[in-house]
Structure formats: C-alpha cells, structure tokens
Write a structure and sequence with these properties.
Elements (H helix, E strand, L loop, with lengths): L1 H23 L8 E6 L2 E22 L5 E6 L6 E2 L4 E5 L2 H36 L5 H33 L2 E3 L4 E3 L9 E2 L8 E16 H9 L6 H6 L5 E4 L10 E5 L9 E9 L10 E17 L4 E3 L2 E7 L5 E12 L2 E6 L6 E3 L13 E4 L3 H7 L1
Parallel strand pairs: 1-19
Antiparallel strand pairs: 1-18, 2-9, 2-13, 3-5, 3-8, 4-7, 5-6, 7-9, 9-12, 10-13, 11-12, 13-17, 14-15, 15-16, 16-17
Length: 381
C-alpha cells in the first residue's frame, strides 16, 4: 500500500513539474503596435476666450421732463420703435393753460408797448416846440423800453410754456427696443422719479466689452505692428463672439477701443469689440465670450488625444531609439483647435505615441507604427 501511494505521489509531482516547464517555455507576447509620430514646429494661432458683456450702441433711460398724470402708454414692452415716435402721453391740460396764460401776457405787453410808443410820439413835437419839458419825453422813452423788455420776457414765457407742453409727448430719442414699463396709464410721473418710464436700446450694432490681464495685454500688443495703440487697433484681425449656447455668432466683430488705464481693483484693462446686429439677434444685457486669436511662430503642437492628465499635470509618452516609452510631463500654454501648444517638455524631432497610451507603463517596449508628422496630422484635422 505504501509503495502504491509513493508511485501516485511521484506521478503527480511529475505532472506539476511538466506543467511548470511548459509555462516557462511559453513565448512572451509581442510588444504592442502603436502609432508614433515625430513632433515638428510650425506657425499657428491659439484661441483664447474672454468673458464679455454686451450693450447696445445707445442704452438710454426714458424719463419725463414735466410732472403730471400719464394719460396714455403708446408702446408695449419689447417693441421696436423709431426715432421721434411718441411713447407716452402726459396730461397736457395744465401746460396748455400755462401756454394760454403766457400768450395773454405777451399780448398785454405788446399793447403796453403801443401805448408807450404813442406817448413818445405825442411828446416829441411838444418838446421840440418847448411846450413841455424834455423830462416828460425821457420818462416816456424809458417806459417804452420797459414795455419792449416786457415783450421779450413774455415771449420767453411763451417759448417755455410751449417747451413744457411739448414735453407731454415723450418721444424716442433713437430707434431701438423698449424695455420694461413699470409705469402704467394713470400713474403720476415726475422728472424726479427714481425709476424711469422705460429704457430704450439701439442695437443695430452692439458693443462687447471684455478685459485682458497685464500679461495677456502685453502679449496682445506684441502681436501687431504700430507705434501706438491706435495703429495696432487698425491692424487687428476680426474677432468672434461665442454665445451662451457655445455657438459662434455668425458675424465677425472688430476691436475698436482700448481703455485708457488698467482697473486698480482687478488689474485688467477693458477692450471693446463692435458687432453688426441688423436682425436684432443680440440685445443689451447678453453675455458671451470674445475669442481672440494670438499668433505663435515655431510653436510645438501636440494632439490632445496623445496626452494624459494625472494630478493636474499633462503627460505624453516619448519613444526612444530602442522603442522604450517614457512618460514625459509637458507645459501647456494654449490650445489651437484640437491640439495643445507646448512650452516645455518636448521639442521638435521627438517621437511620441499618438494613441493607446492609457495602458502604457514607464519603460515599456512598443512596436512603433510610423505615421505622418504631428504637424501634418494637425493640418488634416
């Protein structure tokens, strides 16, 4: 029995040893076949987005210039109005009566001037014939001048009354869109009211205001020739406006203003871009982003798909001459389309792995699949 067990044990050990020998002799899997490309430098443009606030070329508060009851509201909220169109009608009766009173005063002053002139005409020959003293003529002439002055004063009162009467028709100073209407028909309005009757926005063109930090502004100025900011502005290319839905506004804008000084609180300077808006798509209060392109000469570009992010750092896998890969940290300074603009970490001529990098390990050997240069791939994309 013992002999039998020994034979069985020996047989099992032989099987185990045979299995281990088979495993040790199994061929190693081949290195993974991965696409590899050489990095080159080229001239490119990076797009930087800056938050922007949009305003109409004219945003004006409509306020009454006389006090009174609001008889009629002749527009609706959001309506488009033309320059000179009547928006509100204030009760004109008190102001028409003021005009009538001023006209009556004017007529009385004109009559007084006629009387004064008659007195002068009567006394003039009497003084010449020494019938009366010239003192009376001088007094009459002084009264005539006073009457003439009273006419001028009365005319001014009539003009003022006409102006106030005209103010009862509140008209649009520009063409544009009406805002909210907090005052309703019958409300008592005054020129001293805190809240305006409404706001009016002329948006046939819109202004998009955005800010650049000091570093961005220095880089921005260095891109374009010119001895002054005005010269540089003339040579700026059109800019894009990215709306809140991440779609680009269909028309390009033009930067036409740079603020005279930096904001002390934010350390930024404000720029303005003007966009055409004939269809009224944009309104005052819209927000968006100004996409500003900056030119870079001999830039190193790496496809974003060839990078991996770990702990707030970006890496690529470079390939050595013996086909070993090395995880290399890179410094990204911008984006150009689907590519990163690289400042440090790799240089022109370096070989990098383009895809399949999520399973690679430091020092692993691969089988390179040569492709076109990274810059050429970038242009195709």
């Amino acid at each position: 029995m013992k002999m039998k067990n020994a034979i069985i044990t020996t047989f099992i050990l032989a099987l185990v040893l045979s299995s281990c020998a088979d495993k040790s002799q199994a061929p190693a899997p081949p290195p993974p076949l991965l696409p590899v490309a050489a990095i080159t430098s080229e001239n490119t443009t990076t797009d930087n987005d800056y938050p922007a606030s949009i305003q109409g070329t004219v945003d004006v508060e409509i306020r009454p210039q006389v006090s009174g009851n609001l008889d009629r509201v002749l527009v609706d909220e959001g309506a488009y109005v033309s320059k000179g169109q009547t928006l509100f009608k204030i009760n004109e009766r008190p102001f028409r009566e003021q005009l009538n009173n001023a006209l009556a005063s004017l007529h009385a002053a004109e009559a007084a001037l006629i009387n004064a002139q008659l007195e002068v005409d009567k006394l003039t020959p009497l003084v010449q014939n020494k019938v009366v003293s010239d003192y009376q003529l001088k007094t009459a002439k002084a009264s005539q001048k006073i009457a003439a002055a009273n006419i001028e004063q009365a005319k001014a009162m009539v003009a003022s009354a006409k102006i106030n009467l005209g103010y009862t028709n509140v008209t649009a100073p520009v063409s544009g869109y009406i805002g909210r209407l907090p005052k309703k028909q019958g409300s008592l309005v005054s020129a001293t009211d805190v809240e305006p009757l409404t706001t009016l926005s002329d948006v046939h063109e819109v202004f998009a205001y955005f800010s650049l930090g000091e570093t961005d502004f220095i880089n921005f100025k260095s891109q374009y020739a010119g001895n002054s900011i005005g010269d540089k502005i003339k040579k700026l290319p059109p800019v894009s406006l990215i709306l809140a839905d991440n779609n680009a506004y269909p028309q390009k804008g033009k930067i036409d203003m740079v603020d005279g000084q930096f904001d002390k609180n934010t350390g930024a300077i404000t720029l303005r871009a003007t966009f055409p808006n004939a269809n009224g798509t944009l309104r005052s209060g819209n927000t968006g982003r100004i996409r500003l392109g900056l030119q870079h000469d001999d830039a190193i570009l790496v496809p974003q798909s060839a990078t991996i992010e770990m702990q707030d750092k970006v890496f690529v896998f470079t390939v050595s001459k013996d086909n070993k890969v090395t995880k290399m940290p890179i410094t990204v300074v911008g984006k150009s389309g689907t590519n990163y603009l690289i400042k440090e970490g790799v240089k022109s001529g370096d070989q990098i792995v383009l895809s399949g990098i999520d399973k690679l390990q430091e020092g692993q050997v691969i089988q390179p699949e040569k492709t076109t240069k990274v810059a050429q791939i970038t242009n195709k994309k």
